[in-house]
Amino acid sequence: MLTSRTKLSRLxxxxxxxxxxxxxxxxxxxxxxxxxxxxxxxxxxxIAYCRIDDTIYIHGSVGSHFFRQLxxxxxxxxxxxxxxAMIMARSAFSHSVNxxxxxxxxxxxxxxxxxxxxLALERITDHVFKGRWADCRLPxxxxxxxxxxxxxxxxxxxxKIRSGGVNDDLEDRELPYWAGVVPVSTVFGEPxxxxxxxxxxAPDYLKR
Amino acid sequence: MLTSRTKLSRLxxxxxxxxxxxxxxxxxxxxxxxxxxxxxxxxxxxIAYCRIDDTIYIHGSVGSHFFRQLxxxxxxxxxxxxxxAMIMARSAFSHSVNxxxxxxxxxxxxxxxxxxxxLALERITDHVFKGRWADCRLPxxxxxxxxxxxxxxxxxxxxKIRSGGVNDDLEDRELPYWAGVVPVSTVFGEPxxxxxxxxxxAPDYLKR
Lengths: 208, 208
What we know:
CATH topology of chain A: Pnp Oxidase, Chain A
Oligomer: homodimer
Mean pLDDT of chain A: 94
Shape of chain A: globular
Strand content of chain A: 35-45%
Low-confidence stretches of chain A: none
CATH architecture of chain A: Roll
């Protein structure tokens, strides 16, 4: 999956085009950003998704302007970014961030096959909390009619990862500034039951 | 800042074009996604930034392909997304997410004025941890030469916010599924000192 669109020109040692690096990042993130371009004007939408093999699926309302555009088959860019730490170096210049990110390119496809639509909705619902699809009221015909599913085949994708600690220049290492790593993470809190369900234990699959 | 690019077609009750809604979201997020388009192909880059009045500043290497493109003055889209909760409804269809997001449009400008470049770097360094710029080795002439600063004036911007709880249809509310809210937050952990600084207390401004 290596072309001029995903060739890593900056810091190529941080980059990878391997599925075993890319897929875990796509599977861990909660949402992605999808960008497309209309007459040279780029648009970005943050959105929930799932990955099935090398395809990303997103869903939205048939009334959404963005989704109607995507349904026509357009080139998009998908970005998924996980932030792991802030790197506080002794020099301003060497400050950095630990992250794991994927940037992927593909042409959108309106999903019309009902089985594929259903599977995509199942996997989107289960993407963050596996087990939810089996524990809720599934879509009815009217809801399916209101829902558009778009597939984005990952024609090209690259991952970029920065990990580790402070990387100050040698001559800065004796400077009298504190340096180190501030870990950052996305934390899922204790589930809060809806009105009327107080006291009922939340399902185990919601505890991450 | 309301034009056809930012007119909210879906769920306009969730949207706002007011600076007092937009600025706090831009000031809280750690990084943004910037998208631009080249011959109809959109590209996205996740990147650190700061806001000064109604301008977003980003910085990068003069050797970066992406930054060289931005230096020419191109239309970009900037997205900032804060995830607050996962909404687990009784029906799959009513599942949702609490979030605060901003989507903004502007034409990039290469910053050449040295005072403006310096201020942008100060604010980017202080964006997440205010006080860091005053507590590190500031950029030297060689580092300034290697650094490109790009301004993105927020010509148009809109915020979208979903908050609150589960919103199941009335007829679903007696269904025997657990429903509720799973809070999500970005958490900064305890700072970890670089080798040689073990035991030194991290500065207070790193504790968020």
